[in-house]
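User: For documentation purposes, I need each entry recorded in a consistent format: the amino acid sequence on its own, followed directly by the corresponding structure tokens. There are two entries in this batch. Please keep commentary to a minimum and don't merge the entries.

Assistant: Recorded as requested. Entry 1:
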Amino acid sequence: MTDPSIGPTSHTFVSQRLRLHYADWGNASAPPLILLHGGRDHCRNWDWVARELRGDYHIIAPDLRGHGDSAYSPSGDYSMGAFVYDLAQLIHQQKLAPVRIVAHSLGGSIALRYTGAFPETVAKLVAIEGLGPSPAQQAARAKRTAAERLRQWVGETRALAGRIPKRYASIEEAFGRMQGENKHLTPEQARYLTVHGVSQNEDGTYSWKFDNYVRSFSPVDFQPEELRALWANITCPLLLINGKESWASDPMRDGQINYFKDARAVAFDRAGHWVHHDRLDDFVAEVRAFL
């Protein structure tokens, strides 16, 4: 059993020549559990969940490439294929299979794709609002030509190349921005996420750790029918979680739950996109029972 007073240790692994960071919560003899964060987030956003589950699982929480304390991609490659490769390398190098995964948003999309490609390596999967665009958004995207998508991507990426990361004069200023992002966060939660989510610049100001290029989504991706076939390939039990106050599409209402073999969906009241923050105790209870 791990001493609950001790926090995680920091480790790195290499994927496509990038040195990527992960937090290891100890208890190495227990079944492995990966906690995978979302876009423009970081691995320490899982700390509250990890503290609750670390007694039963060997928890590893990676920082995605370009996020947290992981390296930026020199080429600005933050395609879904690159993210899936990084997850595959972590599981392969650390010999974690069969692994349980709890993943949020972008992390959920990555985990679902990985599990569809390597179903034998995942024992159970929890995806918090990780299905990506709704069917309506997919239909709108399908109406745009490949040239239109490429032009938009080039324009967005070029704009990001000239974008200077936002600088905050103090932790307090960045903390205020974090509070504005999620109305459900307590001041203590927002401050904690801010402290772990920023780094100090040479001039004394603070900036978020993530690479601005992660804001740009590749114009090349699976077609909806290909993605659904990948989802249908998942053999492990799947728990889909949504917040009822979120902007994300609900898989029960939009029908996307039907593309999975063994899936159950739960929607939480009084929760937005970050269900694991907004309803921590109830979220942990639901996930613990599922795992």
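Entry 2:
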Amino acid sequence: MSPTRSAAFFDLDKTIIAKSSTLAFSKPFFQGGLLSRRAVLRSAYANFMFGINGADHDQLERMRAYLTQMVTGWDVEVVRQSVAETLHSIIDPLVYEEAVDLIEEHQAAGRDVVIVSASGSEVVEPIGEMLGVDHVIATTLLVENGRYTGDVDFYAYGPNKAVAMERLAAERGYDLAESYAYSDSETDAPMLQAVGHPFAVNPDKALRRIAEDNGWPILAFGRPVALRRRLGLHTKVGKAAAVTVVASAIGAITMALVSRRKHRVTA
């Protein structure tokens, strides 16, 4: 298939949303019995440091090793339920309005929008659905008997992001020379170099230098906005957000009814 289309590739953390997507779910994971209180405090601190300083290669590697070790043995279905039940309340307020505007502009121009994130697919895929994007590239963990083994099947990080983008482009017929990419981190330089229109978003110091040396545009995103305020159904983002609001409400009502029934049985 010869390339006839273009796409827009977005990193997730600090590009579309204002903090680490994985660490943002530490509270519901704790409530679901997956995390200890100590682990919640540690992940909250890691999220804070990630937010104020960004993260270089070594820091991200340590975070990846910590998170992989942390999830070993977790029940995959409990993780998915925790994300589904709390997705809108946790991620919705963190989404940059500027990123949503860009996603809508690319979709209006006929481009596919792809999230490319080092976070796990169980977290990234629901966020992608909430935002109405076309595809997601994310880290995948190995599972046996419904639980994480602690081994990584594919780590969507650094050069691996570019490799996955090239693979998807070949499958979907994207012309990468006519495509766009957005990220905040030096570790995503290969991702940005893979397209003809790279943009540095809220860049760390190293990526800012790379962008300046290569003449890449630098964007500043700083207005997190609740998607529920943007529920105009004329866009894919609006339609997807509306579906997420309804699904979240149904989930909350169902959980409340189940809890009430359990209480009546035990009373």
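Summary note for entry 2:
The first helix runs from residue 26 to 31.
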